[in-house]
Amino acid sequence: MDEPKGPGISGYSQAVQNASRSLQHCLERAQEVVPQQQHQETPVYLGATAGMRLLSLDNRHVAMEVLSAVENKLRSSPFNFQGARIITGQEEGAYGWITINYLLGSFKQSGWLNFLPKLTSIKETVGALDLGGASTQITFVPEQEQSESQENSLHFRLYGKSYNVYTHSFLCYGKDQALRMKLVRDLQNAETGRLQDPCFHTGYERNVSIRDLYASPCTANYKQSLAFPQLHVVGSGDYQACQTRIEELFNKTSCPYSKCSFNGIFLPPLQGHFGAFSAFYFVMNFLNLSAESSPAPLNSAISTMKNFCSRPWSEVKAAYPQVKEKYLSEYCFSGTYIISLLKTGYGFSLETWQQIQFLGKIGSSDAGWTLGYMLNLTNMIPAEQSLMRPLSHAGYVGLMVLSSLVLVGALLLGWCIFRKPRCLRKGIV
Ligand SMILES: Nc1ccn([C@@H]2O[C@H](COP(=O)(O)OP(=O)(O)OP(=O)(O)O)[C@@H](O)[C@H]2O)c(=O)n1
């Protein structure tokens, strides 16, 4: 879901209109894909994520209005609408983990997919890294079963096996909110409305409304009265300086546990392979750093970013005329943010970076929380493994012959008992 624009009424009605427009588009697409005779029996669920969690924190009433506008639209669709709700960060992490492990076949350990040899050859489950616009999630099965923080642990029983899973969702650490947080921090020392920003290319300029910038619960605490209504951002394209500013977003000063990621949040030692999807993939794929067979090592990812950020905006724009300007202008920030989040935030090293695979799709399905949400709501993942093995062809034929013989025998016996044919009567009487 798109992020809320701001607390002004026009911003909110804009958010409702945007939600309604994207939904209309989704419904039209679904009506094309699902055969018409199956529309009525096709269940539809709607889950909203961190953009709506933030809107709800800021103005619960408006968030409920958005949800009810969406509900009305879905109710009037030809599908079997089952409900709309805002999911928690913990659910978002868990469903992302379920999706990728379901698609990779890790729960059944059958390894039925062979197009991702690196991940499908693994016997254990794969960790999930999800990056959105407003939040980011990390979810994996740690080596140690006992967790130091109950609020980060989940227990699943799937196909007869138990999983103790670690998960955490960082609200405000999606890439759009992280950029806002960086800008308000930069503003703290600003004397004028002009800001030199190393996370944008040289020659790039953007005006940002100060009111919009502070309109999110992620930035509200930094609010200060400024003499200028607009921030004029001017790019200076410097990866190293950009990284230094971004790293200030991760507070590593105190940790009440044996180990933390940042902001005092428990993180057990990283374990196994990870699939990184959503914006992790969009950005790394654009930068050619997501090769499925062997992702670029951390050092080459850093040199790619250094080189990309230093390119003048006019050159970047000319090289990628097909990419939306909003996305293109932010890839320097986003790529740098991804490296900082994984390296400084979660502590991936040169070695463990190699365990990350950036994934857009697995087979033909999107990697993301939505499939896991649907599998859970429709009870499609059993808690216990079925003990019945499917019959072989020979077994099936044998069973059919045996049941036919039993049936014929039963009919004959019935005929003999009720009709008492002469042959039998003679023998019996
Ligand atoms: N081709 C694309 C598509 C999306 N994005 C960006 O990817 C992010 C994630 O978008 P989305 O998957 O829609 O996640 P959200 O719904 O924003 O996730 P959340 O609410 O959990 O933060 C957004 O910053 C969006 O601008 C991108 O860089 N390139």
Automatic annotation (TrEMBL):
Taxonomy, superkingdom: Eukaryota
Topology relative to the membrane: Multi-pass membrane protein
EC assignment: 3.6.1.5
Function: Catalyzes the hydrolysis of both di- and triphosphate nucleotides (NDPs and NTPs) and hydrolyze NTPs to nucleotide monophosphates (NMPs) in two distinct successive phosphate-releasing steps, with NDPs as intermediates and participates in the regulation of extracellular levels of nucleotides. By hydrolyzing proinflammatory ATP and platelet-activating ADP to AMP, it blocks platelet aggregation and supports blood flow.
Family the entry assigns: Belongs to the GDA1/CD39 NTPase family.
Gene Ontology CC entries for this record: caveola
Binding site for ATP: 133-137
Tagged with keyword Glycoprotein: yes
Compartment(s): Membrane, Caveola; Membrane
GO molecular function: apyrase activity; ATP binding; GDP phosphatase activity; ribonucleoside triphosphate phosphatase activity; UDP phosphatase activity
Quaternary state and interactors: Homodimer; disulfide-linked.
Residues forming the catalytic site: 92 (proton acceptor)
Cofactor annotation: Mg(2+); Ca(2+)
PANTHER family named in the record: ADENOSINE/GUANOSINE DIPHOSPHATASE, ECTONUCLEOSIDE TRIPHOSPHATE DIPHOSPHOHYDROLASE 1
Alphabetized Pfam families for the sequence: GDA1_CD39 (PF01150)
Membrane-spanning residues: 394-418
Annotated protein name in UniProt: Ectonucleoside triphosphate diphosphohydrolase 1
UniProt catalytic activity: ATP + H2O = ADP + phosphate + H(+); GTP + H2O = GDP + phosphate + H(+); IDP + H2O = IMP + phosphate + H(+); a ribonucleoside 5'-diphosphate + H2O = a ribonucleoside 5'-phosphate + phosphate + H(+)
